[in-house]
Amino acid sequence: MSLLEIKNLQVSVEDDRQILRGVDLTVNPGEVHAIMGPNGSGKSTLAHVLSGKDGYEVTGGEVLLDGADLLAMEPDERAAAGLFLAFQYPMEIPGVATMTFLRTAMNAQRKKRGEAELSTPEFMKRVREEAAKLSIDPEMLRRPVNVGFSGGEKKRNEVLQMALLQPKLAVLDETDSGLDIDALKIAAEGVNRLRSPERGMIVITHYQRLLDHIVPDIVHVFFNGRIVRTGGKELAHELEAKGYADYEQEVAA
Ligand code: ADP
Ligand code: MG
Ligand code: MG
């Protein structure tokens, strides 16, 4: 069975403006997909709809995660079902230590799955192991979540969260500009370390450069609210060279 199946997904925002116009995408276990497309084409909207964020109206189509109806689930149920979303600008949570946040996220996922909470020593052991792999200073874990974190620290924190939650499907929206080279490399290393035959990943990016570090199995061109072309990793290089002009002409015609 496919890990993720998006079929003819159509989404509108306020004032009935349609943003997604029939997205079709299938991700199998073990695959890393890249979605590339111009600014404003709806890439982040797709990520937000998968996460269950408010403010989007699904007007058609369906999304199945491991065969289950993802759109019928609450955001916490989606996480428990194995979905992880990472956004470029993660939320700051003043007053909540990063360590506490990670533990809460892990235990919430375990509880939804009917698993026992991790004991304090078990939790500490796992966090220390994963943090060390990411060169995270333990001091960072005592600070409130993302408050005053540098771009690189925020990215490390997200990758740490992903490593601890061990999602079935990870979606990373590395949107637009502002992702510095350090953050980009951290994101890439995090994704590469978590590649596995059971896990699927979708990396949404503007940057061909990111895909030099994360070599995708499959590349999709996203244009005007849908996937208009699918190919191998060479497609990313073609886009870097030619841009989206061909697609603009097709849409205009
Ligand atoms: P991308 O990530 O490809 O740059 P987005 O998904 O961010 O594109 O945006 C696609 C279009 O949808 C843009 O025109 C944007 O202004 C609009 N849009 C996205 N989210 C909302 C929202 N919550 N309300 C209104 N318009 C939105
Ligand atoms: Mg954008
Ligand atoms: Mg975006």
TrEMBL record:
A Pfam family that the UniProt record links to this protein: ABC_tran
Keywords: ATP-binding, Nucleotide-binding
Gene3D superfamilies per UniProt: P-loop containing nucleotide triphosphate hydrolases
Membrane spanning stretches: none
InterPro entries per the UniProt record, alphabetical: AAA+_ATPase, ABC_transporter-like_ATP-bd, ABC_transporter-like_CS, FeS-cluster_ATPase_SufC, P-loop_NTPase
Domain ABC transporter: 4-249
Single annotated GO MF: ATP hydrolysis activity
Similarity remark: Belongs to the ABC transporter superfamily. Ycf16 family.
Protein name from the UniProt record: ATP-dependent transporter SufC
Organism: Rhodoplanes serenus
Taxonomic lineage of the native organism: Bacteria, Pseudomonadati, Pseudomonadota, Alphaproteobacteria, Hyphomicrobiales
